[in-house]
Amino acid sequence: MTENSKDPEGLSYRALAMLRAVAQDRAEITVSQEPDLYVDGLPCSDQITAHLLAHAGLIRPARDGMPGGRVPAKLSETGQALVAPLVPAA
User: Per the domain annotation, does 6 fall within a domain?
Assistant: First the structure.
């Protein structure tokens, strides 16, 4: 398995890891047209994938915020459906 491997839904393992981090409440997203993702307080190393996830409607800000500011990231219903089998119940 490599970072470029794909799952049946067409998402890379890296994209799925990013979605899992959002599901685990470990991610923040900037309020922006091109939202950046932060995981555990650090900028995600693949912002292009973060942008794609946001534009695909899989992740979004959990609440309103100042333009350019960071807010908690949240999965959409579609994003939740994709990662539900991958995230252990808390």
Answer: no
Number of domains in the chain: 1
Judging by DSSP bridges, how do beta strands 37-39 and 42-43 pair with one another? Answer: antiparallel
What are 9-39's pLDDT values in tens digits?
688 999 999 999 999 999 999 999 999 999 9
Residue 58 lies in a domain: yes
Terminal-residue alpha carbon distance, the chain: 27
Closest CA to 57 of 68, 70, 73: 73
Asked if the structure places residue 17 within a domain, the reply is yes
Cα–Cα distances in angstroms (integers) from residue 71 to residues 15, 33, 37, 63, 74, in the given order: 20, 14, 10, 7, 9
Q: 59 lies in which domain range? A: 13-83
